[in-house]
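Usage

Read records sequentially. Each one opens with the input sequence:
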Amino acid sequence: MVQVWVAAAGQMFFSLGVSFGGIIMFGSYNKFTNKVYSDSLLISLTDMITSIIAGFVVFTAFGGMAKATGRKVSEVAKSGYGMAFVVYPEALSNLPPSQLWSVLFFFMLFTLGLDSEFGMLETVITCIQDEFPKLKKYKTYICIGLSCACFLMALPCTCP
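and closes with the structure output:
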């Protein structure tokens, strides 16, 4: 039972992005009189509701696939990247216009990854601009340079 709560706490910190510095960076753009408590509550509740809805969607897909294939849900539910790139496309292939749902699903995955990268990149850009205020007028060039640097650092992770 303790392992479930530890996993839930880890997921909470990951989904809110507490340790990445993005929340502090975005908060630094607020006015000093901003209502932080109501913003924190709204963000946490929205994250919780989104996670609950996503859980319903995930286990609905698992249950449907388990029933269609005659297997147990635990056999269908593979953790990690297999869920996004194997289980969901297989579930979407059973829906009518399956090609449309597959294109929409992978477009959603692409935009989610891109959105996460925007937050992390903006955190680094804000740190650079806070440390070197004269560079604020070069934000576009800093963003392009950091994007290229991140791309080059990621290449060894994707190439054999």
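Summary fields computed downstream for this record:
- The chain has seven helices and no strands.
- The mean pLDDT is 85.
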